[in-house]
Amino acid sequence: MSDTFNFQRFGRYFRFDLARMWRNNTKTAVLLGCGTVLTVLLVGLAGLLLDFHWHTANDPFRFIGFVIALCVLELLMAKTYGFITDRKNGSDFLMIPASTLEKWVSMMLVCLVVIPVLFFATYMLVDGFVCTVLPAAGRPLFSWFGDAIQASSDGFKELNASLAGQQIPLQYSLSSIIVPSIISFWGYSLYFLLCGLLFKRHKILNAILVMMGLSLVFSLVLPHLLPNIAEHLEGMNEKEAMLYADGFLNVTILIGGLIAALLAVVCYVRLRKIAH
Amino acid sequence: MVTINNLSFSYGRKEVLSGISLSLKEGRIIGLLGENGVGKTTLLTLLCGLKAPASGEILTDGRHPFDRQPSLLSDQFYLPDEVTPLRMTAAAFGRSRAGFWPNFTMEKYSELLQELEVNPNDRMDQMSSGQLKKTWIALGLACHVKYYYMDEPTNGLDIPSKAQFRKLLARETAGDSVVVLSTHQVRDLEDIIDTLVILEARSVAVNATLDTIGKAFRFEYTDTVSPSSLYNEMVPGGIIQVLPNPEGLESKVNIEAFFNALHRNREAVLNLLK
Q1: What percent of chain B has pLDDT above 90?
Q2: Which partner from A106, A134, B156, B264 sits 20 to 30 angstroms from A90, CA to CA?
């Protein structure tokens, strides 16, 4: 039996990992999945306090609630496997007879696929239920997402985008919306996951502080490294500008993908080298 | 067999183990003793692969423990001093680990839980520390592995459980097992230990079987202290003393007295052991 990767052993470990995830994170997941209920309650209470009337949270509020829940989910990635840095729990994890690669693949699947899918499904289900019970809340979020996917999957659509102050009729397709969103979600998830594996205490706070520091550094350095977009766009006709913007988007996706891949590799190295 | 070659380990600038070399042979139950802070737990965690040596190497059947290869992990069990109270019942705990260790069976695990008087339906996060420790001990012994590394295994156990632990350890470990027990509670385990490894500051002071120690020293319970006594202590009913044993007389090794003799008369004890 291979010491690097064995499908049978991986299957066993993955089931074990899923059960642990379920045991430790169910409450949080349910709470996050009920984001719409929380949004409706908060908006309603705010209305009662401000003008003594109950206001049911409509689509924009519920969408903002969903985005906030998504951000909280990203932050909580720092906690999902954070137990590994704890001597007691971490030793138990390291001594389970599975290879580091198997543990890492399982971790990636749990954090990048299982948790987001569960969150999304729970959120949409609860939101749909709330919209059924309270018609004033508007359309369920999943119908919005469904429409967006339907519209973009019909082929290339035009979107008036603003790039470096210039309006460009940018073409977009399903993949040009979904792929960057997923890569961006994975990138942030992996960042917080890695911080959870690196910091022993105050994982979320430290992750946020490091992110703020990195943002500051990048905001100072990147303008000197990146080409001046406005200068490039000057003198281009509409078609050239569109192609340029498309290329720019592809480069951004590529860089995002590379950063996510790099973070995933660093997570593996951390797992390989962690000691207690 | 575990071979340790010139092993060193430091916490930052503080060197805990320096140039240690020893081998742990099959079929031995090794008592790892030493004062607080000499590196017993560090050595155990190095042996099971939770830490990487700063220099030198550890080879367990030719494999480096820190590589944490599944084939080696499934042949060893590490019991830490403080075990994790998981949010599940003892029975579910066993089921969740089944399959990772090839020799593990739920039947044996349930039998061991019963012998250790642990209710399989009790939740681990609601158990007393002793019950929790016994649950982990049951899991470890049901794994039937070759290498056992146990850090203070009797800590938190009540008196009947300590006796039961000794009985089960002797019964469930195979003839070719290597069992390393790090402990301060030598009286709890002296009946099953057959080899002593005593650590002192950064190195190994003693690595000898109890047979060897028994041949070199005499452990005597008397009323008067002998002038050649290397260590003596008042105990209920008389005095226990450690004496040189040039005549090769047989006596039961008192590990605690031997440890104290080494502490008190290091050079003399080590010379006699040579």
Answers
A1: 92
A2: B156
What residue type is A220 in one-letter code? L
Going from N- to C-terminal start, the domains of chain A cover 7-273
Nearest to A89 among B70, B74, B84 (CB): B84
Cα separation values, B129 from A35, B122, B160, B203, Å: 38, 13, 15, 32
Q: H or E stretch including A248? A: helix A238-273
Nearest Cα residue to B143 out of B65, B78, B49:
B78
Residues of A with CB under 8 A from a CB of B: 1, 3, 6, 9, 12-13, 16, 19, 23-24, 87-89, 91-92, 94-100, 102, 273, 275-276
pLDDT of residue A135: 87
Contact B155, B40 (CB under 8 A): no
Enter the ipTM.
0.92
pLDDT in tens, A17-70: 999 999 888 788 888 988 888 998 998 898 888 888 888 888 888 999 999 999
pLDDT at B160: 94
Dihedrals phi, psi of B229, to nearest 5 degrees: -60, 130
CB-CB under 8 Å, B70 with A99: yes
B84–A contact, CB cutoff 8 A: yes
- Total count of residues recorded for chain A: 276
